[in-house]
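Next up, a chain.

===
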Amino acid sequence: MKYTKLGNSDLTVSRICMGCMGFGDPGKGQHSWTLDEERSREIIKHGLELGVNFYDTAIGYQSGTSEQYVGRALRDYAKRGDVVVATKFMPRTKEDIESGISGQEHIERMINRSLKNLGMDYVDLYIYHMWDYQTPLYEIMDGLNRVVKAGKARYIGISNCYAWQLAKVNALAEREGFAKFVSIQGHYNLLFREEEREMAPYCREENIALTPYSALAGGRLSRKPGDTSRRLEEDSYAKLKYDGTAQQDQVIIDRVAELAEKHDVSMTEIALAWLLEKVASPVVGMTKFHHVEGAVKAVDLSLTSEEMAYLEEAYVPHRLVGVMAQNTKEASGEKHVWSVGEQKI
């Protein structure tokens, strides 16, 4: 395993982050394919054995049971100071807003609940899960700054936003003396490269770490045509994101398979080796041992500039989907209040 500093922080993270959305009670959330606690612990332990020290979860994953599984496993298998734990919080619900709960109060409630789930005194990275148009920006940044000042989070990150939003919010933080975002978790992989337009260059300029989710496009970049899995069949959110562009994406998937055969490695290794040239630490979902092993091996695989170009040249622009599509609607004035039950990241 190789390690890197996470943006403008002193956190040292593995080049692969274990995405923990696949862990949690299958009966307590949107996803029926998640692993129970025993199997989740096995995957987390295997990641630790192979040098993965960066773990990403969220309070919205399977009603908090992902946080619970991750917290218990890390307490049993690792020293707290040896791992970097990230979790995410949801925007206020309609009921929160109607009852007068402020942004600061909401964030305090969310971090306290996450810390209880995790069984930890602090998280290393606390992530603003999606842009909240219903809450004043000052309240959000003040609330997050209070969390950092209280020692409940070492740093803050953001997910699912535009470059202009990240620039705006960090400018506010700088002006007010608040904690600034050190990382961005956006949607980025070989099949979806819209982050390269503005977010990636902005983050290079500001030394903000890119830790993208959906690194393997919901498994599409790790399997040859015809191969399938329970998640590919049942993950409705991934289908929403990728099924509409399946034909144009297949050209790229075929090239990943071709280079995998050439190098005698897995497709996972090729797809992640490409992404590792672009970002600090991709968030990779892992629900089987070979998922962990393939991701870790990718860290040591180097592609030539010609191979990188070969993988990239077939790309065509994609429309925004999922949470970022909702973000676009919100920005244009179509109001929507998220609730935990609607969270599908």
Observations:
- The first helix runs from residue 37 to 49.
